[in-house]
Sequence to fold (254 residues):
Amino acid sequence: MPHPFPDFRLTGQVTVVTGGGSGIGRALAHTFAGAGARVVVLDTNGAAAEQVANEIGSMAQHAVADVSNEDAIESVMEDVARQHGRIDVLFNNAGINRRNTSFDLTIADWNAVVAVNMTGMFLCARAAARHMRDGGGGRIVNTASILGISGGWYPNIVYQATKGAVVNMTRSWAVEWAPYNVRVNAVAPSIIRTPMTEALTSQPDVVAKFEALTPLGRLCEPADMTGPVLFLATAASSMVTGHILPVDGGVLAQ
Fold:
């Protein structure tokens, strides 16, 4: 029997997931494989990336690289394209945070977050898009944040600044790369339960505060991201580019 929703499939396609060793990236690596794709799980933590690839099985492999290292990212994308003949989808998801007030944030922490969240996002998108251009097209889905769209609930200046950059890089690339049939969109979650947010989400009073601010009344989970990202990564969204899709339980609707 044919699949009832063939446009949501990635059968035989080659996908790369950055930050794939945990959290949102891990969830999407499993989702892409379930949709029929070959998945390259990329992370700075080689053991975590390998673990996710092993969980998936024969449809996955892992790669180790720092997304802020231009040579390393160019090499990984070249290796993937050489091995599989193309890159169809990039889930550009790797990110870090250093929460602090503007007065107390060190320049070292500022630079560290910018290197991963902004420069790394650029390097991964550019390297993948070159191969997509040469292969006739592809899809890039970036992980932004509602904190890149609206004011924050707590002091988090460098994260907000870099996620705001992701929003506008997404829109810029959507126009720049449209002639090559490369579509670029982003998802913008609210606070989400991942290892990166554990310091916040492990505090019941903090969770209660965020739940009260969310119309749907709960925090976002990695599983909540799988449908929106899969939509943007497949032919189901063939006329969608330059869009920032909030996955926030209604926070931005208020």
Q: What stands out?
A: The chain has one domain: 6-195+222-243. The longest helix spans residues 107-135. The chain is about 45% helix and 15% strand. The CA atoms of residues 68 and 208 lie 35 Å apart.
